[in-house]
Amino acid sequence: xxxxxxxxxxxxxxxxxxxxxxxxxxxxxxxxxxxxxxxxxxxxxxxxxxxxxxxxxxxxxxxxxxxxxxxxxxxxxxxxxxxxxxxxxxxxxxxxxxxxxxxxxxxxxxxxxxxxxxxxxxxxxxxxxxxxxxxxxxxxxxxxxxxxxxxxxxxxxxxxxxxxxxxxxxxxxxxxxxxxxxxxxxxxxxxxxxxxxxxxxxxxxxxxxxxxxxxxxxxxxxxxxxxxxxxxxxxxxxxxxxxxxxxxx
Length: 249
Hints:
Shape: globular
Structural class: alpha/beta
Number of strands: 10
């Protein structure tokens, strides 16, 4: 895992976007297409704004996959990740296609199976991800399943994860935050050729320290990123504030 600390949130986002753009261009140069995974949430705002502004990405040969989505939340809801992705990425660049997680499905297991078959036919070149306040990776809250090879699974959201969504202003009350979601599994994320992980804000500092300097454990799901051969972690000064001096670059 390589760590890059931006001068501020905007610089962090621009650096992360430039790194991911290089991975996309590399895939297109090698085989004429690219497959990406895209995360959502407040941590990805500046990265996505910078990514869609980069002029020399051939989006018409790029296919996107959705990282996770709440179950039972309509796309019209302000917190819908499908809505987020449509507004912040899909409507702004001419992607070949984008495979959303259908959070309105009446059969979540069938939806997981559908998405799993899709992603197995599209090996991922770069996954854009973040880290939650509880150390989660996608919606794999602690203790995360490090063993399953299922590409997508139904998960229960823990209290800290749900409080984060409330604290970021996506929901009016904690009771409004869904309790279940569909998430890409940890092992599926690790299959990505490159991972660009963008994590701003002081409230994420403890999770970042645990993910980078702590043991690899399901109790801090993002710690598994230590095992990936091509993972770039982009931080701002606040999220990097608890790292030991030797880990700051």
